[in-house]
Amino acid sequence: MSSSSAAPRRGEKSGAAAKPPMRDALVAAAFRLFLERGYEQTTVDDIVALAGVGRRSFFRYFPSKEDVVFPDHERCLADMTAFLSSGDGAEEPVRRVCDAARLVLLMYAENPDFSVQRYRLTKQVPGLRAYELSVVWRYERALADYLRRRLRDRRDGTLHADVIAAAVVAAHNNALRSWLRSGAGIDPEAAVDHALGSVRSTFGTEPAARPSGWATAQDRAEDVMVVVTRRGTPLWRVVQEIETAPARD
Questions:
Q1: Is residue 129 a contact partner of residue 122, using CB atoms and an 8 Å limit?
Q2: What is the CATH superfamily name and number for domain 1-68?
Q3: Confidence (pLDDT) at 192
Q4: What fold characterizes domain 72-209?
Q5: Quick check: 48 and 25 in contact, CB under 8 A?
Q6: 249: burial class by Cβ within 10 Å (0-12, 13-18, 19+)?
Q7: Better-predicted residue by pLDDT, 244 or 32
Q8: What is the pLDDT of residues 4-46, one digit of tens each?
Q9: Closest by CA position to 138, among listed 42, 220, 70
Q10: Spatial distance between the Cα atoms of 77 and 2, rounded to a whole number of angstroms
């Protein structure tokens, strides 16, 4: 994808002869100008002029210039909310919210080049970072609202719901940003599955299957170490001995 391409929409036809929808044309024009001139130096008038449409058309799709940087989050949030509402109540709740979080990953992975461009742009513009945080908060609230309903009969159910939702978002974003920082050079699904597996292992009531390629100490007998030390040795000294011990075949 070229630097001026916009994120594809589900169900749209591809092909050189197909004219991109107006919404995608606006996103493409915006990112071309952001890359050429800089975000702060680009105005809405500049974007609509390059796209060949009027200002009214821009604001029909995007309330502000910030929204054109994150064109698919509203759709993804709606998909997540619908997914969480579609269950029959028998699903293990922590697994359900982890599966819901994967919808965000799939949105980013639909167009890796666009996602990497956006990540790099967002890092450069403080206003966009603040906007992104507000979007992340909305995802977290959607997960927490679902968990609050599922855990309402448990002791401290609301507290646990909010903690689990925050953990899911933190784990997902840690893996997602690792993928973006790599330039989309690693397997995003394996990274996110590994991160969310930690959340399920900590908070869930069923074991989480580890994705292939992510080994742990329990998978390899050579990772087991026995340390003999004097009584009263400070804990930091024991940890230091473990970290500096030579590997053995």
A1: yes
A2: Homeodomain-like (1.10.10.60)
A3: 96
A4: Tetracycline Repressor; domain 2 (1.10.357)
A5: no
A6: exposed
A7: 32
A8: 334 434 444 444 344 558 989 999 999 999 989 999 999 999 9
A9: 70
A10: 27
Amino acid at 40: E
Write down the domain spans for the chain: 1-68, 72-209
Of the candidates 62, 2, 6, 66, the one whose C-alpha atom is nearest the C-alpha of residue 39 is: 66
> Is-contact 156 164, C-beta < 8 A?
no
Does the pLDDT of residue 126 top 80, yes or no? Answer: yes
Nearest one of 62, 79, 74, 80 to 25, comparing CA atoms: 62
Q: What is the pLDDT of residues 83-93, one digit of tens each?
A: 999 988 889 99
* 3-state SS, residue 134: helix
Phi, psi of 159 (to 5 degrees): -60, -50
Would you state the pLDDT for residue 17?
41
CA distances from 151 to 43, 87, 160, 198 (A): 47, 15, 8, 20
Residues of the chain with pLDDT > 70, as a percent, come to 74
Rounded Cα–Cα distance for residues 57 and 244 (Å): 62
pLDDT at 215: 45
- Report how far residue 69's alpha carbon sits from residue 117's, in angstroms, rounded to the nearest whole number: 10
| 16, 82, 92, 162 from 150: Cα distances, Å | 48, 16, 9, 12
Query: CB burial class (10 A; 0-12, 13-18, 19+) of residue 7?
Result: buried
Q: What is d(CA 207, CA 122) in angstroms, rounded to the nearest whole number?
A: 36
**Distance between CA atoms of 189 and 187, rounded to whole angstroms?**
6
